[in-house]
Batch of 2 targets.
Target 1
Amino acid sequence: MTELEKKELCEKFDVNTLINYLEDNNNLVVKFLFSENEHDFPLEIFDILLREVQLLKKVCDNMEEWKDLIKVYTKNIISVKEDLKLFFFIQNGEIISIPVSDEVREKLENKVSLWIDESLI
């Protein structure tokens, strides 16, 4: 992709579409992270998601506001893929992680997001 193509793509880029896409995908990834039987799922899917993130990074290279969103999404994919049992999210502008425990699963069930309100943790 040339610099001109990247610039044109960025100018036409729908911010809300990317937010919704990353949010929805992050929610799906974290459901696997929170589930007890994530090993029943083909982990190759997470390799595909990681490749997709690399493409997103290239497109969004000059969009500073996306860098943390993409980092959180990537970290959660890796956490599932490598069985790290860590959940990553953004709170007050910082990327934070917490170990996945039964308590965390209960608190955050159906509330998973890229951004977590500190009152939930």
Note: The two ends are 42 Å apart (CA to CA).
Target 2
Amino acid sequence: MINRVVLVGRITKDPELRKTQSGLSTVSFTVACNRRFTSQGQEPQADFINCVAWRQTADYMANYVKKGALLGVEGRIQTRNYEDQTGKRVYVTEVVCDSVQTLVRSNTEGQSNYQPSYQASAPADNSGYTPDSPTSYDNDFSTETLDIASDDLPF
């Protein structure tokens, strides 16, 4: 089964860092994502998606992310429920973040106000691999004809 979410949107308010009883850092926040299509004559609509980040990702957000920042969020959808103070059952659906990145946005002076990003994904693999120089993809499709017999084709 696949449960993967990728969002790009703006955070609706400054994140507030909280600590659990066991000392884990957590932050809950909402990302506003514009809908792709709107009806003619209507203003663009947005979806407000609740998210939660833990540990180092939460610490990063508390230090570097401010209201209105453009974020790239990766994670999974999780549902949970609890009983509130009045005894009513409350259901919550949220994105549990594996990775949160502040995305580059230029300010009016043409300088970038980019903040470092943090990904709470798998630890870095220090196996000594260094990628080769960037590959050129300019000539992905050659104009040369291929010499293939029709008997070699599966269809």
Note: The mean pLDDT is 79.
